[in-house]
Each structure stands twice: as structure tokens, then as C-alpha cells.
């Protein structure tokens, strides 16, 4: 019985610590104020979401390890879409850095969001791991 109680306390403390870490990281990389540039970037991303999703499903583009979309085959339309998406992502990342006093941590912010994109990727989509190796989720 004592072992079960100790185990319960351990699990509770572990979950509390993880939640605190998650909330801390989420707060560290958040948008504090919705600027017109960020609002526009988010609207742009929403408007191109379905087309980008289709290109990901075909393997034309993938999520790289720097938080951006990368074109994996020669496709001019995909290049245009990826450039626009990456410009909007950069706007968001830079805003997060500026609003959270992390201007020297842009690379870290990009890496954090790259992991988020890898986690959100659907089965069959191309993703690049931290070491630079491309694979299929």
C-alpha cells in the first residue's frame, strides 16, 4: 500500500513538473500582441493550408528541421507557395522573438516550431529530423 502511495505521489509530481515545463515553454514562445503583420501572416497561412496539405501528401514539399517548408521536387508552383508560406512563418517567428525578448534565439524558435511541425505531420508526409536526414512519417 505504501508503495502505491509513493508511486502515486511520484507520478503526480512528474506530471506537475511536465505541465509546468510545457506551460513555461508555451509562454516563452508565444505571441503577446497580435500585430497587423502577424494577423496577415496567419490569414495567409490559413488561405493556403489546403493547397500546402495537398503538396505534402504528394511528397512535393516537406517540413525541414528549421521550421520551414522545403520543396523536394522541381515544381515552380510549389516554390512560389513554399516561399510565401516561409515568409509568413518567418514573420511569426521574428515577432515571437521580439515580443519575448529572444532576439538572439531565432534559431531556437525555428527549431522548436520545426519539432511542432514534425509532430503535426500526417502519416506519409516528408519530414527532416534534427540531424538533417529526410524521412517519411
Note the main attributes of this structure:
single chain, 137 residues, alpha+beta, four-stranded mixed β-sheet, 4 strands, globular, disordered N terminus
Can you characterise this structure?
The chain has helices spanning 2-28, 36-58, 76-99, 106-120, and strands spanning 61-63, 69-71, 126-128, 134-136. With 137 residues, the protein is an alpha+beta fold. Strands 2-1-3-4 form a four-stranded mixed beta sheet. A hairpin with a 5-residue loop joins strand 1 (61-63) and strand 2.
Tally of separate helices: 4
Secondary-structure element series:
HHEEHHEE
Neighbour order of strands in the largest sheet: 2-1-3-4
* Number of strand segments: 4
Anisotropy-based shape: globular
Report the mean per-residue pLDDT as an integer.
84
Give the fraction of residues assigned to helices.
Answer: 55-70%
Round the Cα radius of gyration to an integer and report it: 18 Å
Q: Given the helix and strand composition, which structural class is it?
A: alpha+beta
Outline the biggest β-sheet: 4 strands, mixed
% residues in beta strands: 5-15%
Distance between the termini: 43 Å
Query: Which oligomeric state applies?
Result: single chain
Q: In the residues, how many domains can be counted?
A: 2
Give start-end ranges of low-pLDDT stretches. Answer: 1-26
SSE order and pairing:
Blueprint: H1 2-28, H2 36-58, E1 61-63, E2 69-71, H3 76-99, H4 106-120, E3 126-128, E4 134-136
Parallel strand pairs: 1-3
Antiparallel strand pairs: 1-2, 3-4
Helix pairs in contact: 2-3
Amino acid at each position: 500500500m505504501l508503495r502505491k502511495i509513493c508511486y502515486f505521489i511520484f507520478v503526480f509530481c512528474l506530471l506537475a513538473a511536465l505541465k509546468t515545463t510545457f506551460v513555461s515553454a508555451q509562454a516563452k514562445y508565444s505571441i503577446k500582441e497580435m500585430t497587423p503583420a502577424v494577423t496577415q501572416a496567419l490569414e495567409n497561412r490559413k488561405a493556403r493550408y489546403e493547397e500546402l496539405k495537398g503538396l505534402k501528401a504528394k511528397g512535393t514539399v516537406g517540413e525541414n528541421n528549421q521550421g520551414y517548408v522545403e520543396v523536394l521536387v522541381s515544381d515552380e508552383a510549389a516554390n512560389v507557395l513554399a516561399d510565401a508560406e516561409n515568409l509568413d512563418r518567418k514573420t511569426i517567428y521574428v515577432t515571437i522573438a521580439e515580443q519575448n525578448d529572444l532576439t538572439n534565439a531565432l534559431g531556437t524558435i525555428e527549431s522548436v516550431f520545426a519539432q511542432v511541425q514534425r509532430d503535426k505531420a500526417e502519416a506519409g508526409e516528408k519530414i527532416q529530423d534534427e540531424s538533417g536526414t529526410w524521412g517519411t512519417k
